[in-house]
């Protein structure tokens, strides 16, 4: 089997597990009704380790999976759109950021969550989906902040696990 | 064709990105069409199977962890519930007792209306433990108008019967010497035949009183069960209060008077409420 296909299949499996944990275990461990985005952490790891194509492909697949997991048809395209962009953007950092560091995943996950929030608002405006951004702006901002912090705290631990997976290890030339 | 392949190879990342975004956009626009919804339903059903199974494992683990703390919580709850249950049982017992008391008091009240003397109702609070039933204490005293030598009666079995007399008075209580005490003497008279005699107590070990000095020829008239009441002679007790029932004769040939066993009307073992007579109305 082609290496790229193996990577995509493995990424799909990891994303599936991350979503499963996110919607079960971490659904119980929410803070102010906000849970972490484990799928995003996995996406950031894959994108920063493997580059743009794997990153945006995994982003697209992650978005689709999140949509199916939520059971809302609108969420399929919505999440796929946002996560594809994020996968592309983080894929551009391939070779410039070391995933072996402990602090880097923290900042990457925090930044990724905030970017996700901003992109959500832009997509809502572009496609004119009125009820997705209903409510107080400051509450929306606060929720993004909580999600960013929660995701950022978990990122170093998840990166530690993902670094152990053979197919996800960056090529020697990619390590700085 | 080769040119297109070349363009794709050089810009494959951007082309793929645009393609993905285009598909995502279409999925947003056509989100509520039948095809997308049907596909969404089937895939999310598949996903939910895993979510349900995983969640049950998570819940089990969570319950296991929480059960440790829950045990302590349940222990405290059990202790509180037990205390509450004991309290309710006590209340239930009190209710049964109060109902009984209420019934008895109603009965007493009905019977008390038949008393022709003014009286002070009282409750028996204790018995003399050395000479059981020889004397008893009531819960009324000098503050309630109780005085020494006042007669004490009670109601049992529909009859108004003599209990004894007050021998000492405190502020809030009084001691009553009962009929059965060996130092107790009552002048009695047969209700139907008017034969008189002196009734004396025989102590706690006897279940009858002894009526002495009854004329011998009374033997032909008196019958088992005849009521003997106070005669009023001597002024110790008012007239007409039932003392007991004639039970048995103890007569010897050479004696000039009869000795009669008298069953007291009042069962002192069941005495709870008494009436202290103040005198004629």
Most residues in contact: chain pair: A-B, 35 and 29 residues
Binned strand content of chain B: 25-35%
Write the H/E string of chain A, N to C: HHHHHHH
Q: Which CATH C-level class of the domain at 117-280 in chain B is it? A: Mainly Beta
Task: State the helicity of chain B in percent bands.
Answer: 25-40%
Q: Biggest sheet of chain A, in brief?
A: none
**Number of separate strands of chain B:** 12
List the strand order in the largest sheet of chain B. 1-2-5-4-3-12
**Overall pLDDT metric of chain B:** 83
Class derived from helix and strand content of chain A: mainly alpha
Number of helices of chain B: 3
CATH topology of the domain at 117-280 in chain B: Thrombin, subunit H
The beta-strand count of chain A equals: 0
What's the short version?
By secondary structure, chain A is an all-alpha fold. Chain A has 7 helices and no strands. In chain A, helix 1 runs parallel beside helix 4 (52-70) and helix 3 crosses helix 6.
């Amino acid at each position: 089997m082609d290496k790229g296909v193996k990577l995509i299949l493995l990424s799909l499996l990891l994303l599936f597990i991350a979503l499963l944990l996110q919607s079960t275990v971490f659904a119980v461990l929410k803070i102010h009704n906000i849970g972490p985005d484990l799928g995003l952490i996995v996406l950031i790891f894959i994108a920063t380790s493997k580059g743009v194509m794997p990153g945006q492909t995994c982003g697209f697949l992650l978005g689709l999976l999140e949509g199916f997991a939520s059971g809302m048809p609108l969420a399929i395209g919505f999440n796929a759109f946002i996560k594809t962009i994020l996968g592309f953007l983080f894929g551009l950092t391939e070779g410039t950021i070391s995933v072996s560091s402990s602090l880097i995943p923290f900042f990457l996950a925090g930044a990724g969550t905030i970017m996700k929030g901003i992109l959500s608002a832009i997509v809502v405006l572009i496609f004119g989906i009125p009820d997705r951004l209903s409510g107080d702006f400051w509450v929306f901002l606060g929720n993004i902040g909580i999600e960013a912090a929660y995701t950022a705290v978990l990122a170093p631990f998840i990166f530690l696990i993902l670094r152990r997976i053979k197919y996800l290890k960056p090529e020697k030339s990619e390590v700085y | 064709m080769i040119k297109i392949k070349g363009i794709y190879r050089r810009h494959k990342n951007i082309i793929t990105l645009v393609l993905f975004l285009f598909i995502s956009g279409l999925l947003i626009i056509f989100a509520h069409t039948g095809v997308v919804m049907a596909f969404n339903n089937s895939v999310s059903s598949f996903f939910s199977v895993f979510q349900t199974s995983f969640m049950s494992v998570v819940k089990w683990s969570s319950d296991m962890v929480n059960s440790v703390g829950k045990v302590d919580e349940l222990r405290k709850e059990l202790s509180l519930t037990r205390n509450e249950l004991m309290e309710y049982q006590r209340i239930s017992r009190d209710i049964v007792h109060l109902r009984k008391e209420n019934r008895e008091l109603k009965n007493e009240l009905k019977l008390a209306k038949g008393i022709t003397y003014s009286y002070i109702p009282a409750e028996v609070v204790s018995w003399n433990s050395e000479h059981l039933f020889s004397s008893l204490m009531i819960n009324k005293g000098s503050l309630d108008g109780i005085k020494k030598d006042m007669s004490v009666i009670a109601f049992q079995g529909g009859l108004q019967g003599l209990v004894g007399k007050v021998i000492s008075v405190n502020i809030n209580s009084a001691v009553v010497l009962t009929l059965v005490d060996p130092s107790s003497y009552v002048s009695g008279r047969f209700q139907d035949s008017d034969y008189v005699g002196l009734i004396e107590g025989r102590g706690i070990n006897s279940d009858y009183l002894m009526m002495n000095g009854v004329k011998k020829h009374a033997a032909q008239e008196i019958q088992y069960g005849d009521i003997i009441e106070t005669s009023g002679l001597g002024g110790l007790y008012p007239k007409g209060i039932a003392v007991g029932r004639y039970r048995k004769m103890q007569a010897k040939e050479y004696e000039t008077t009869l000795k009669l066993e008298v069953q007291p009307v009042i069962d002192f073992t069941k005495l709870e409420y008494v009436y202290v007579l103040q005198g004629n109305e």
